[in-house]
Predict the structure of Structure-specific endonuclease subunit SLX1 homolog.
Amino acid sequence: MLACYLLVSVSSQRYSKNRTYIGFTLDPSRRIRQHNGEIIAGARRTSRHRPWEMVAVVHGFASKTQGLQFEWAWQNPEKCIPLKWQRDHPGAKQIPAKGRKTPSGCLQSLVALLSVPPWSHAPLTVTITAKRDDWSKWKIDKTVFPRHKQAEFSPVDELRAGPYDYRRGLMTIPKRGACRICSKRDFHRAETFCASCGVTVHLACLADSDEQRATFLPHWVQCPSCDESHHWSLFVRLCKALEEECD
């Protein structure tokens, strides 16, 4: 798993109140144990403010480079070029001032980042891992994520790597058929399916079908079969699910 995460100190010391830390990891459940000193390896910068609670995890990055870029942008939202270009965006207006790295401020920055390209197009999943009793304290219950990036809720130890855990029954992978748009069965091309009706389409055909789009990648795409609209990133997630099913 390639993931960025937000930690909040739950230490009783006054100097640790509302302390936060944003990092990148391949294993969130192991990393939180390192931050809390249960595993002796790394995490020296956070040793003073232990114990920590992992509040949110963003995963689904295509590469380590993309994940590290997101980590830097989340740590430095005031310097992030995509946000500077999108100052008129409702989410971007909520970016906290430099130095104000409170839990709620970090969550506001996360919402802003997920609302602008390139991350608004990426098939990312946000998982809230904080204890439910702490949601109101850190304003998690008032955080409104973008429509296509609705947050999941799961303990750190139960995080799943894939966009959909269809092996546990959360989503059924439909039988692959001919592309609804070009009517061809070409398994060498990236395929996806509609989350509403399950019809198979090629990603390229789906992108080309949106003739009204003003950007390189579409934002919302209408299914050619059931006419339901889904965000482009959802179709990319389902493409990955199909690839995992075939492996």
